Amino acid sequence: MGPIGYCICLRCGYKIPKQPGIRCMEIRCPKCGAAMVREGSYHHQLYLEKLRKKKGT
Q1: Contacts with 12 (C-beta within 8 Å, 6 or more apart), sequence order
Q2: In the structure, what pLDDT confidence band is assigned to residue 57 with cuts at 50, 70 and 90?
Q3: 26-43: per-residue pLDDT in tens?
Q4: How is the beta sheet containing 15-17 ordered, strand by strand?
Q5: Which one, of 48, 36, 46, 50, lies nearest residue 6 by Cα?
Q6: How much is the pTM?
């Protein structure tokens, strides 16, 4: 996905800039301590799809 982007916390929504050479999943959210994911990644897309389905019910 390239070196530019953001890591996002799926628990609280906190965003930080991606750090080159460090996977987002290795970073813990500074606000809540949850593992972070790369914004726009496969895992982020799965989470967004889950939210969409939940809202539709």
Answers
A1: 29, 31, 32, 34
A2: low
A3: 999 999 999 999 999 999
A4: 15-17, 6-9, 36-38
A5: 36
A6: 0.81
H or E element in which residue 7 lies: strand 6-9
- Cβ neighbors of 38 (< 8 A, separation 6 or more) are 1, 5, 6, 7, 8, 18, 23, 24, 25, 44
Among 57, 52, 8, 16, residue whose Cα is nearest residue 34: 8
- DSSP single-letter state for residue 4: -
| Structure tokens given for 55 | 């809202």
Task: State whether residue 50 is helix, strand or coil.
Answer: helix
SS3 of residue 23 by DSSP: coil
